[in-house]
Design brief:
9-stranded antiparallel β-sheet, Immunoglobulin-like, 1 helix, Jelly Rolls
């Protein structure tokens, strides 16, 4: 599997000072000590256990409660202790302050969820802190190129680069709160400040967050458009916490791809929620998942396809894209996307496929007499056995095909060079099935793994295509 493209790794020397430090502002070595001399009145007790990634208790692990939150500029104070022989710990905390629990042993460390303030009675918080090898976190904040990003519970900060990217090296795993602030911008509450809470799992070293934006209802929250990250299983080793608000009602893009104005923005990440059918329109008895460009991918068996029912994204401008590890030609037609019931002039609206007869990648529709097709290039334009990003974009009734971020060139009968050509899908009087990776013909299944299928009713530009390609390539 290809690793994400971390172009900003080149700025490592400039941010070498971001390496996590467990140096506290005011440290205490006894579990009964409370930073700042706070008395027992109004305190809370944080008790719990420290585990390694195998779930084994860690004895003599260092446990620190940092008084910190995303609204602050840094750590205010701290209190610490050491786990007993069974990996258990107890810390007296100032009940009026939020705290971040951190544990470390050797080269492993981890954060636990924020301990929220307890204003009144003494209470007990049961916590589990899992420690693991240090991680790299990177991401991008949309439409921003100034400001500071900080990991709460640490002194690690970094500035956004010119494209809004940031990166942290050598950081703890676990429950992470990332805060962003910009003194040059303002919000309803003064200085622009926002945060994102997420949890990492698995054994990956590098975690790449999806592009973040400000939640329109409350700019103190950073959110992402890819809703699979908010599920219990998360995506790509990351689970993102949603704002605790009745207004937060994210819908799965697979179940509700169309917005109120009819726009479509559908992403299939091959997480098991997609509908795979055999060519006789019965649900597939078995679906094969393989390692994808991000998480899992689907390797369709002959006769299978992914069904999107009567989804209709091709009535105007559109972008269809996916990642594939192609196994090459196999003597058959191979469908990437099809919108048809049967191949005839009355039920075929559009399809994008590899045409076996000509040996070219083609966008095609059926017309009375002969099919109408646009030919983009032969089999050599898509590498075999390597993950490749393919995109077909229709803008103002002209289509272009991109492979790994580059537009395909083709020539007309006079030898003139073009990158786009007039193409309008058939205007049918009935709805027909929209399918990925196959159609009603059992022999026309795409010969390769498929991942990260994106369907939108917008025509993206060449820069967007390049960025999509860079996401999962070195």
């Amino acid at each position: 599997m290809n690793m994400p493209n971390l172009k900003f790794l080149l700025i490592g020397a400039a941010i070498a000072s971001f390496v996590f430090s467990v140096t506290v502002l005011t440290g205490c070595s006894d579990s009964n000590d409370v930073a700042g001399g706070v008395t027992d009145i109004g305190n809370s007790v944080a008790t719990g256990i420290v585990l390694d990634v195998a779930g084994t208790p860690v004895a003599r692990a260092r446990v620190v409660a940092y008084y910190d939150s995303w609204q602050q500029d840094g750590i205010e104070d701290s209190v610490e202790t050491v786990t007993d022989a069974e990996g258990k710990f107890e810390l007296n905390l100032d009940g009026n302050k939020a705290a971040v629990l951190f544990a470390s042993a050797g080269d492993s460390s981890g954060f636990a969820k924020l301990v929220q303030p307890k204003i009144s009675a003494r209470s007990t918080e049961q916590q589990t802190v899992t420690i693991a090898q240090h991680k790299i976190y990177s991401g991008q904040i949309a439409d921003r190129n100034t400001g500071i990003v900080r990991i709460v519970g640490s002194n690690a900060t970094t500035k956004l680069d010119a494209d809004g990217y940031f990166i942290f090296y050598d950081m703890p795993s676990g429950d992470i709160t990332l805060t962003y602030s910009d003194t040059s911008a303002s919000s309803d509450n003064g200085q622009l400040q926002s945060h994102l809470e997420f949890n990492t799992y698995g054994e990956k070293q590098i975690y790449v967050l999806p592009k973040m934006n400000f939640w329109e209802a409350d700019t103190s929250w950073l959110t992402v458009s890819r809703m699979e990250y908010y599920s219990e299983k998360g995506h790509d080793g990351i689970i993102i916490a949603a704002p605790e608000s009745e207004d937060w009602t994210p819908a799965s893009s697979a179940s509700a791809p169309a917005s109120s104005d009819g726009a479509i923005n559908l992403l299939l990440t091959m997480d098991g929620s997609e509908s795979v059918y055999d060519n006789d329109t019965t649900p597939a008895a078995k679906v094969e998942y393989v390692e994808g460009v991000s998480g899992k991918a689907i390797l369709l068996k002959p006769g299978q396809f992914i069904s999107l029912d009567s989804l209709d994204p091709t009535g105007g401008n559109f972008t269809l894209s996916l990642w594939t590890k192609w196994n090459g030609t196999n003597g058959k037609h191979q469908i990437l996307f099809s919108q048809r019931a049967y191949w005839s002039d009355s039920t075929s609206r559009f399809q994008w496929h590899f045409e076996h007869c000509t040996g070219w990648f083609t966008a095609m529709k059926s017309t009375p007499g002969d099919p109408y097709a646009i030919y983009f290039g032969d089999s050599s334009i898509v590498p075999v056995g390597k993950w490749s990003h393919l995109a077909l974009i229709s803008r103002n009734k002209k289509v272009s095909m991109y492979v790994n971020g580059e537009v395909m060139h083709f020539k007309d009968e006079k030898g003139d060079d073009y990158t786009e050509w007039k193409f309008v899908p058939n205007d049918l009087k009935r709805k027909v099935p929209f399918r990925v990776g196959g159609d009603e013909v059992s022999t026309e299944t795409w010969n390769g793994a498929i991942d990260e299928v994106l369907i939108e009713t917008v025509a993206h530009d060449a820069n967007w295509v390049k960025e999509q390609y860079k996401k999962y390539t070195k």
